[in-house]
Amino acid sequence: MEFYEVIKKRRTIRNFSDEKIPEEKILKVLNAGIKAPTYNHLREWEFILVKDIDLRIKIVNAEGIPESADMEQLEQSFSNLDSTAKQMYLDAIPKQKSMLLKSPELLVIVFKPKTIVEKSKSVYDLNCLSSVWCCIENILLALTAENLCGVTYIPQKSEKIKEVLNIPRQLEIAAIIPFGYKLKDAAVLPQKKILLEEKLHFNKW
Fold first, then answer.
1. What is the reported pTM?
2. 3-state SS of the chain?
3. Where exactly are the structural domains of the chain?
4. Which of 122, 125, 173, 205 fits 158 for a cystine, CB–CB 3.0-4.6 Å?
5. Which tens digits make up the pLDDT trace of 106-135?
C-alpha cells in the first residue's frame, strides 16, 4: 500500500473479526514500531502480547470497566462537545470492555520514563513519552498497511495493570492496543474535516 494511502486509510476500529492474525504480520508491525525515532536512540520500549483471557479479564477488572454503559448519562456528560467528538465518545465507551476482551490481539506498550510525568517541569522532561508515541503511531500505520486495524486505550489504573502483568515498577504503560481484522459491519466514524490552510502559520501566529 502506498504511504499516503496508508495515512488516509488509518482509522480507529473497535469491533474485530475473530480471524487469526499470522505471526509474521504481528512481528512485521512491531518491527515498524521499533524503527520509530527516539530522543535517546535507545528505544526503551517493551511489548507484551496478552493472549491469556484470564489476564485480560484481570486487566478489565483492574480498570473497573462496567458491564454496560448508561447511555443517557453519557449523552448528558458529552452534551457540550463538538458533535464529532461526542459521537466518538458515545461509540467508544460502551465498547471498552469488549475490545479488550475479544480482540484477536491485545498489545501493551511499555516504556522507561525519563522523568515521572507528575514531576515533569517542562516539555523536555516528556521526551520519553513523545518518543514512545512515535513508536505507537508507526504501529498503527503498519497495522493499516497490513489491512489490520486497532485502537489506542490509555489505562487509568496503570499501577494495577502493571501488577497483573508483572511489569517492573520503574517502567510505565504508554497504551494498550487491541487489534485485528475489521469486523465486516464495524462502525467507521466520520472524522472532522480540518483545513490545513486554517492551521498553517508562517513566521508568526
1. 0.92
2. CCHHHHHHHCCECCCECCCCCCHHHHHHHHHHHHCCCCCCCCCCEEEEECCCHHHHHHHHHHHCCCCCCCHHHHHHHCCCCCHHHHHHHHHHHHHHHHHHHHCCEEEEEEECCCCCHHHCCCHHHHHHHHHHHHHHHHHHHHHHHCCCEECCECCCCHHHHHHHHCCCCCCEEEEEEEEECECCCCCCCCCCCCCHHHCCCCCCC
3. 3-198
4. 173
5. 999 999 998 877 788 888 888 999 999 999
Q: Which CATH class is domain 3-198?
A: alpha beta
CA gap 64, 157 in Å, rounded: 8
Q: Count how many Cα atoms sit within 13 Å of the Cα of residue 98 in the half-sphere of its side chain.
A: 13
